[in-house]
Design brief:
The chain contains eleven helices and nine strands. It is α/β, with parallel strands linked by helices. The chain folds into two domains: 141 residues, Rossmann fold; 151 residues, Aspartate/ornithine carbamoyltransferase (Rossmann fold, 3-Layer(aba) Sandwich), CATH 3.40.50.1370. It has a five-stranded parallel beta sheet with strand order 7-6-5-8-9, sandwiched between helices. Strand 3, helix 4 and strand 4 form a beta-alpha-beta unit. It is globular.
Length: 308
């Protein structure tokens, strides 16, 4: 069996192109499994996985938990809101206490960028980053790439526009790294206040006009406005943002081609996407959610093969 070059999934930046291809190919097999009448396989029957979430999450947490159960792993769920972290316990102590109960893998979401990397250096389990602050969200980028490949075939030379709040998005950074490693061209588009300084140094095109971005791309990956991460106002109002950057059905109909519309969720309907786009044939948003389980199964399965 081919193996990953790393024993952790901390970010797309750390993966090779071969690693990404291996994960996507393995996910194809698992997608076939989860569409069978009996959706379980015994692949991780002897593995215990702890889901440690220091930030709120619905899709990612459920998706990981379902992936773990489909692989027959034992699952422990930990939420910081009712834990000893509230009493001042450190991250490493918290995780080491969980590991002393013979846990093999940790899936962690944390508000601090770099928290999974810190953990990987200090504990013995495999670490999977389920999102660290505004830094990376590797499994989201992998499931996005998987969904694009399913719709378009090989991504070599395909044009992907990431539209919206790039500044506060961990999805954007992981997507840029992943798509470039698969040979796609990437453009970012949004208000200038929501684009990181020097973003073009990552080798992406920068566009401020959403209509031009849609005319250029094969895929529009639309990100939500992350008001919970914004300490100051980056634009006058949501209504104004929607007026200049919201995507509606009329805009798609004016294009001389079909494009694929994606969104990592949750959607702010009527802000970044109108309902007639979110629910249209252009959108593959629910396919992304379905593919998330298969991709996370692939990641956990492959990491179990490189346990120390």
């Amino acid at each position: 069996m081919s193996q990953l070059s790393t024993r952790h999934l901390l970010g797309i930046k750390d993966l090779t192109s071969a690693d990404i291809q291996l994960i996507l190919e393995t996910a194809e097999n698992f997608k076939e499994v989860i569409n069978r009448p009996i959706k379980k396989v015994p692949s991780l029957r002897d593995i215990t996985i702890a889901n440690i979430f220091f930030e709120n999450s619905t899709r990612t947490r459920l998706s990981f938990e379902l992936a773990e159960k489909r692989l027959s792993a034992d699952v422990v769920n930990f939420s910081s809101s009712n834990s000893s972290v509230k009493k001042g316990e450190t991250l490493v102590d918290t995780v080491n206490n969980i590991l002393s109960m013979k846990v093999d893998m940790v899936v962690m979401r944390h508000s601090s960028p770099g928290a999974p990397h810190f953990l990987a250096r200090n504990v013995k389990a495999n670490i999977v980053n389920a999102g660290d602050g505004t830094h990376e969200h590797p499994t989201q980028a992998l499931l996005d790439a998987f969904s694009m490949r399913e719709k378009l075939g090989d991504l070599q030379g395909k044009k992907v526009a990431i539209i919206g709040d790039i500044l506060h998005s961990r999805v954007a950074l992981s997507n840029i790294f992943c798509l470039q490693k698969l040979g796609a061209e990437v453009m970012v588009c949004g208000p200038i206040t929501l684009l990181p300084k020097h973003i073009e140094s990552l080798g992406v095109k920068v566009e401020l006009d959403v209509r031009k971005a849609l005319a250029w791309c094969d895929v529009a990956n639309v990100l939500r406005i992350q008001l919970e991460r914004q300490q100051i106002k980056y634009f006058p109002s949501l209504r104004e943002y929607s007026l200049y950057y919201g995507i509606n059905k009329k805009m798609l109909e004016e294009l001389d081609k079909e494009i694929v519309v994606m969104h990592p969720g949750p959607i702010n309907r009527g802000v970044e996407l109108s309902s007639d786009v979110a629910d249209s044939d252009h959108a593959i948003i629910l396919q992304q959610v379905e593919n998330g389980v298969a991709v996370r199964m692939a990641v956990l399965y492959l990491l179990a093969g490189v346990r120390a």
